[in-house]
Every structure is written in structure tokens, then in C-alpha cells.
Amino acid sequence: MLAQAIHPPAPPHPIAMRSRKHISPFNLVRARTVDEAGQAMAASRNARYVAGGIDLIDLMKSGLEVGTIISLDAIPGLRGISLEGDRLFIGALTTHADIAESELLHRHVPGFREIWATVANLRIRMVGTFGGNLISALPHYDAPAACAALGAVGRVRKAAGEYMDAPVTALGGDKSALLEGTFIDVHEPVRLLADRSLHPVLSVYLAVRPTGMRATIACAFARPHVIDLPLDASLAQADVAAEVAASAPAMMESSIASAAYQRRMIAVLLKRLLKRAAERQP
Amino acid sequence: MTHSHTQESDTYFRAFRKKATGQSVYTFDVVLPFMLHGKLLRSPHAHARIKSIDASKALAMDGVSCVVTGADLAELADPYYGVGLRDQPVIAIDRVRYVGDVVAAVCAVDENTAYRALQQIVVDYEPLLSVMTPSAALMDDAPVLFDTPTRGVSPVIGAGSAYKIDPAPNVLYEYTFGYGDVDRALDSAHALFTDTFEIGRINHFHLEPYVNVARWTGSQVEFWSCNQDPFVLRADVARIFGLPVTDVRIRTPLIGGGFGGKSYCKMEPLVALMSRKAGAPVRLALSMDESMLTLVKHPASLTLTTGVDKQGLLLGRRADITLDGGAYSDASTLVAIKTGFRIGGPYRWQAIDSRARIVRTNTIPSGSFRGFGGTQASWASERQIDMIARRLGHDPVAFRKRNLLKAGEPFAPNDRGIDLDLAAGFDRLIASMPARTKGRGQGVAIGIKDAGGTGNHGQALVRVNQSGQVCVSTATVDIGQGAPSAMCRIATEVLGLPRNTAVYASVDTEHNPPDNGTHVSCATMITGLAVEAAARDALQQVLAFAASQLGCTADDITLEGWLVRHGGALHPLEPMIRKYFGGIGWEFIGRGAFKEPYAPATPMGAENVSWMPCWSGAEVEVDEETGQVRVLSLVVGSDAGRALDMGTCIGQVEGAAAQAFAQAMFEEMRYRGDQPDNATPLAYRVPRVADMPQDFRAFVMESRLGVGPGGLKGIGEAGMLGIAAAIANAIEDATGASLTKTPFTPERVLAALDARQAPDIAASK
């Protein structure tokens, strides 16, 4: 399996200062409720929320100055997966390992759990959070692609204290917004397929519902490229996949793989997913 | 005395326990009174002139002691370092030559203060045109990296070898090697093949970064260093500062991996300069990011023209090798020599003609890496051997066997004969390969290199006290390879004492006898011979003493543990020694040495001490739509001559093979424009446990033909050599796609699959 890591595209590493030993002094707030966290954010200059800390600490080692770190660890209710009516809720602090082990998620979104058992490595899965992955939204991260395929929405507390539901592809821009968790509509059966075999060159996700399919393509774009497909697309897999590949927008510049290769692989991987969908393979 | 411990409690296992419980002390852990911390400011430009450096704001900060820049080098006797050829300034003087070149160094009370001070330093650069690849550097109008002739001398070479220093603009060094009439051999060939192979840029990725602590006392400087060559470093520091070597002291604690990256002088003179200017001990611990900007393995392009007769016998080979040396020399001369010399592989030739050039580019300096040019040479040679066999319709296994050197045959004229049975190991590899499965491909390769260094030597002390406890003292450092255990075992075997009676002295140039460094798989063999001789010397002293006490000759007695057998009686030694010497007792101090003599008639200037094979086999499955390769089986073997500890030898071979596997499949340091694109631990991909083939096996042969104690040889680099070629050969076997460039990314494999329809590049006569 090829799985070269892609470094965050921004901010660039200040190569002249490559020590990565310096983390700026910061204040630490351990919030006990979401509102308390929000208030701390509003009251602080240059503040950031921290969950697993995978990306934030790496950015700080590279010179990102943060005045206040607001730890979300102690807030009850942010970690875990639950069913709320017809919607499945994945708390922002749910770790990748939690997802890979969730029976509830497996029951309502078959395929999700198996895919997540292959994301990152064991140490990252134990610490890294689903919400952090959505907020950081690096091009090769999996949560944005999976959630976009599933049409998931994030419940966000804005800095002013109001709550709103936002598409997952819109998360991450506003650092003062606090993601409480993600809702996946499960009122009708849905299953999730993915081909991560070329990650981080390319990943393709496919959510299959009785009413239609949605594919997302990650790694090659700043945000997952989303394509809605009719159910009968799985019958003409190669043609549909080729068309999706041909009409995909321009890829990001990368030294890992050429845009031509990535485009060609969209057709290959999507065709395979559509075939699996048609044959009802896991 | 009694020996109640089991053998498992010897030096080897004590080391494991310390590592597992966090008690091992690395240079990183060293703390001295009044110690300051250093941080380095690095160039963001690939090539630029330094117009000015303003450090006044940094110097005004509380806690900042001093800032060192190129202006401080004026006080040094010789501000340049490098192996043989010296072109790298201790710190950039007036020009930077790669992104990451060091332009200023701050000493402060702690790392944070030093880091903040760096941010206050203003460097005014005048950017210059850069050359990022050898082909760009060799163009007629290419900017030239150095305006003056390179200082220093070439390493020693012998008959059949030649060199040129600065033969052309941006060419640091050219090495040529040959024997026989290659034109005649190629003209007489039934078939001729010319192919070009490339290998990517690789970082050493040692987990312990570069760490040095320096302290001056008057005119004497002492180091705690992670450098794997303490006496080589001592000589470099002495030359640079104009000191007698006795005024330079290097202590080397346990090293957290090096793979060649910690060979030879690097930033140690700069740390000494920082300490001298600060008037206090200074610790410089690079981050892993910075380590990655310090040294890489040479990327290379190798064009081989090989002639074969009708029977499939190899006749002659011409090699044109271009090695990207990066911005500075480091150990490039040695890598050029070793790549050019080893290009024939383990085969019999009528003639060889090779040229290896080091081309300067504005990239991270290239230097020694586990295998020292051997991986580049083996990759190209073993890939082409396989391609030739397939093109001629021959079985690649039979083709190799027909041409393999036999034990005792010289690798090159006048050199030491091959000290192993290459065919026997190859047979074992073939027998170890899985049964053929439809849809999968299998490939093999036989890498080979000389080992032990050129004209190498080492010295040792073995001290045995009145209780029969042993202290072995050499300059071989513990870099995770198990050297202390090996040295103690060699000594105790000679003395007939249990292994757990021996300890290995810490490495300190003020106390230990010297050697040329812990590299080229020489320690167990070269320094091991010195230890064996020292133990014999100590044993003779013990026997002579006991004989004098028992009123007989040394020939009349034997040692049985720490008892002396004289006739039918056993005499405990300890009371005998205590009675005679009194006081604190006595030590029998044995001295030993080994020197491989220079021999000008040999190509390297001395006979190569040993030969190191790497029998490699791979089985792969290729996804022909994506180009993704799955290595299902990887089998690798080598010859230890004699395995002092089979588990350690297997571990060395497996470790090297895992490293080579990653370099073949995905590991590569990439540039985008003139900026390193993935030179961070987060972005640079190294192998994970899950990457390794499920069927991964290593074997170690024991030919008993090495020159080391009991016929042993070094084995540390062996597993690197044949892996990439074996995998590429398996890919061709599975699909017909021909890979000529590492790593085998899916995109490259897919391109090779696409190219199967293209006309054959072979020019068969």
C-alpha cells in the first residue's frame, strides 16, 4: 500500500527556522461545557480549540503562535456515537479508534467501521479525533471525504453563541467555531465504500442509498470533489467513471503524483467502487 | 569467583534492558554545568550570496550569549571539512549553496531563547541562479557553485583506478576503474545492451537526531557526540582549530541510529566554535527536520553497456555513473570510488571500464549511507543482468550461475579472492522462494560489495583483573548493532571465560585505542581481530604469572575458567594474584592491533578485507490498472563468515532489507523547484511494520572464510544491496514491465506497463 503523507499545504514551513523545538508560550483553558469553551474563545486573543492535537501541535512546532489553547477534553457528550431519531451523531471528540470499533455505526452505515480501521496508524487512531480531522480538512484526510459522500452536516457553535448546521465541506475555515459533532442521515439504508489503496495519491469514497449514490474524491483537491450519481451508474461503471474523471476539476500541484495519473486513477478506482456497489460487495 | 549469572545476562541483554526501561544514555541526555543551547539559522535560498548579517537585535536579547557567523571562521586554522576533499565551511562564509545551509548560530540560556533570537537576525541575500540536477549543473552555461579549486586530496586508490579532482565545472571528482580491453570485449560480443538506471534521493532518518555538546578548558576541547567515528572526528577538529589531537577529546555514548549519516565530521566544529565564543559549554541538538537537511544518500544515474557471448557468458561492461553530490563534498569521493569499483557485481568479466562522477548541485549534501555506493551499483547491475537474461531468452537464475565468481577467484585483478560460496547461497535463496503462483512474478538478485574499509586498522585493550573480570576497550561505538556484545564475546572466547564476565568500556578518545570509525561493516572484523589479539596477549600474561607462581612453565598449565590446571590439580587464580600483588589487586592488560597493509597493485590500494553478498528474492503481484505493486514475499540472505550471534546477524540483515525495501517501493526525498518538498518527518515516508511483506525471511550463511576471529566478517550493510533489483525483476517477471528508476511508485509502474508496447530498447547484434 502506498501511503506517503502529504504535508499541510499552508502555512509553509519557515525553512530558515527548522528547529521545530519552539512552541510559543500559551494559556491553557480546560473548558467544562461547550458554552464555557465558546466564551473562552470569545474572550481570548488568538485562541484555538484542541482535541487530539495532532495537527495543532504540529503547526505550533512549525512556528504557529497561539495565545490560548482551549482544551475540549473535559466536556461531556462530545465523544461517542449515538442515534438521534433518523440521524446518527458522531461527537467531535470521537477518536478514529472509537469509529473503527463502533457497533452502532456498523449497523447503520455498513462499511464505515472497516474503512476506519485502515485510516492513519494505530497511534493516530487512538488519539486523533473525527472532528479534528474534519476541521483540519487536509486534502488527504478521510473524514471530509467520507462525510461529504454521506451528506453529513456538522453542528457548530459560532463565536457569538448561536448554533447552526453546516455542510462538512464548509468546516474548518472559521477557527472560532466549535464543532460539536456530525450528523449522518440514516432514515434510509446507506452503506459506505472506499478505495484508499492509492492514498495519499488519491482516495475515492462512495455512499450508496436506495435513492442514489454520491462519490467523493480526496487527495487531489483542496476539498473533496463531490459527484452525485444515479443508481443505474453502477451498471455502466467504466463509462461513468471515465466521464467523472474527465470532467473533474484541475488537480492540486503535487510532487507525489502527476495530475494525469490522478485523473486516470479516478476512473479506475471509481469504476471499481461502482462495481462493488452493483455486486453488493462490502 | 563463581559465575552465577546465566549467559543471557551478558552485555547484550543488559543493553536491551536499559533501552526498554529508558535508562540508556544518549548524547541527547548529556547535561553540563552552565551549559548553553544552540540554534541554527538556515538559508531559505538554494544559492545566494550573503551580503550582510545583522545580529544586533538578537545579541541585545536577554539570555543570548553570542551569535556565530562566517566572520568567526577567520580565527580557524582551516575552516573547511569533508572526506579527503574539503569544501564545506564550518558555517557559510559568504555564500549559501542549498536550502538549509547554516548561516548563523545562536548560543543562549535555553532553546526557546536561542530560537527567538534566530528570528531577530537579518540576513541580506543576493539570490543566485541555482542548479538542482546533475544535468542542469553540467550545462555549458550553468552557474558554477565554487569559484576556487577544491582543497584536499583524494582517498588512496591503486592499480587500475584513477581520479581527477575538479575535472569540469560543477564536477567535484571523477573516478575511473578498469581492467582488460573493454573495447575488444564489447566488439567481440554476440549481444550488446545499453540501459540507464536511476535511483532516488534518500534520507538516513536516524531516530536520534544529530546532537553534540562541546566544552573548552583552556586550549582543550571535549565533546559528547553522536558521531560514529570518534577518532576521525578528533582529527578533523584538531586540524580545523590548529590543535594537537591530544587537545581534542571525544566521548561517544550510545548512538540512536546513524546508517552512515553520522559518519565523518558534520556540525561538530561549529559547536566547538560556538562554545569557544560563548565561553561556556554548548549543546546543539538538531531537530529531525534539521537532520533531514544535513545529509542524504547520493541520487544516481548509471548507464551500463554490457556485452555477452553466444553461450551467455558476460564479456565486458562499460559504466558511466553520475552521482548527485549535492552542495558539498562530504564523503562523495568514497562513494564515487565504491560505486565505480563495484559495478561489475559478483560475476566474472574479461574487462570492465567504469567512470563515476560526483556532480555538484544546490541540494542537500550527499554522503555515506549504509552500503556506500553498493546499493546504487547493485541496483543497476542486477537489474541489467536480469533484463539481459530475459532478452536473450535465458533463465535469469541459470544466467547468473553461469557467470558467478567462485570462492577464491578475485573480484578484480590482484584483489583478495571471494571469501564465500556465492552459488551455495544463491541455491539456498532459490530453495527458499515460495512455489510459483499464477498471476505473480518472482525475481532474484545478488548484490555484492567489499567490506571492512581500505587499508583499515584498529587497536584494542583487553584488561583482566584479579577476579577474572574483563574490560574490553576499543573505539567501536554502540550504534545499535551489538558491537559491545560482539567484542566482549570475542575476548571471553579467547580467555575461556563466561561472556557475562566482560564489560565494554565507554568510548572516549582520551582512553580507548583508536580505529578508523564504526562504518563499512568493519568493527567486528577489523577491531574484532585487534580484540582477539589483545585477549591472547592478556591470556599469555595470566599464564606466565600463574606459571611463575606454580614454579613451572606456561606450557605446563592451562586456564579453566579462572582456575589454573597444573597436572591433576586446579589452582584458583584470584588468591594467587591477591597474595602476590596485595593492595587492590592487579590487571593483566593485553594489547592488540590489526592492520590491513596497503598494496598499490590492487585497485583500492589495499586488498579488500572481505566480500559481502546479498542474495535477494521477491515475489510480487501487480495491479495493472493502477500500477500498484504488492510484495508478497521477500527473502534475503548474506554470509557472516561465522555468526557470533545468529539472532543479531539475522537482525542486521532484516533491518537493512527493510530499509532497502522502503527505498525501492516508496521512500524518496523530493524537491519541488529549489525547495525540498517532503523533508519533514511528517511528510517523509519510511517503512511501517504493516508495509513489510507478510512473508519476510532472512538467512545467514557461515562460510568460515572471513579474516575475522573464527572466520567472521561484517554483515551490517549486506541486506541493502539486492532488494530493489529483486523487486523490479519480479515486476518484470509478472508483467513484462521494465522498471529502471526507484522508487517503484504506482505511477512509474503504470508508465512501465504502458511502455510494454514500445519497441525494445535492446540493441542486439
Largest sheet descriptor of chain A: 5 strands, antiparallel
Helices and strands of chain A, in order, run as EHEHEEEHHHHHHEEEEEEEHH
Number of strands of chain B: 37
CATH topology of the largest domain in chain A: Uridine Diphospho-n-acetylenolpyruvylglucosamine Reductase, domain 3
Q: Tally the helices of chain B: what do you get? A: 18
End-to-end CA span of chain A: 19 Å
Count of all domains of chain B:
3
CATH class of the largest domain in chain A: Alpha Beta
Average residue-wise pLDDT of chain A = 89
Which term fits the overall shape of chain A?
globular
Question: What's this entry about, in short?
Answer:
Chain A has 282 residues and is of the alpha+beta class.
Protein model, in words:
The complex is a heterodimer of chains A (282) and B (765). By secondary structure, chain A is α+β, with helices and mostly antiparallel strands. Chain A folds into three domains: 17-70; 81-185, Uridine Diphospho-n-acetylenolpyruvylglucosamine Reductase, domain 3 (2-Layer Sandwich); 191-278, Enolase-like, domain 1, CATH 3.30.390. Helix content of chain A is 31%, strand content 24%. Chain A is built from ten helices and twelve strands. In chain A, the strands form three sheets. A five-stranded antiparallel sheet of chain A has the order 4-5-8-6-7, with helices on both faces. Chain A has a four-stranded antiparallel sheet with strand order 9-10-11-12, with helices on both faces. In chain A, strand 6 (153-157) and strand 7 form a beta hairpin. In chain A, helix 9 (237-247) packs antiparallel against helix 10 (259-278). Chain A is globular, with a radius of gyration of 19 Å. The model of chain A is unreliable at 1-13 (pLDDT under 50). Chain B has 765 residues and is an alpha+beta fold. Chain B folds into three domains: 34-128 and 205-292, Aldehyde oxidase/xanthine dehydrogenase, a/b hammerhead (Aldehyde Oxidoreductase, domain 3, Alpha-Beta Complex); 296-453 and 601-757, Aldehyde Oxidoreductase, domain 4, CATH 3.30.365.10; 456-595, Aldehyde Oxidoreductase, domain 4 (2-Layer Sandwich). Helices cover 26% and strands 28% of the residues of chain B. Chain B contains 18 helices and 37 strands. The N and C termini of chain B lie far apart (76 Å). Classes of the chains: A alpha+beta (282), B alpha+beta (765). Chains A and B meet through helix 10 of A and strand 1, helix 3, helix 8, strand 35 and strand 36 of B.
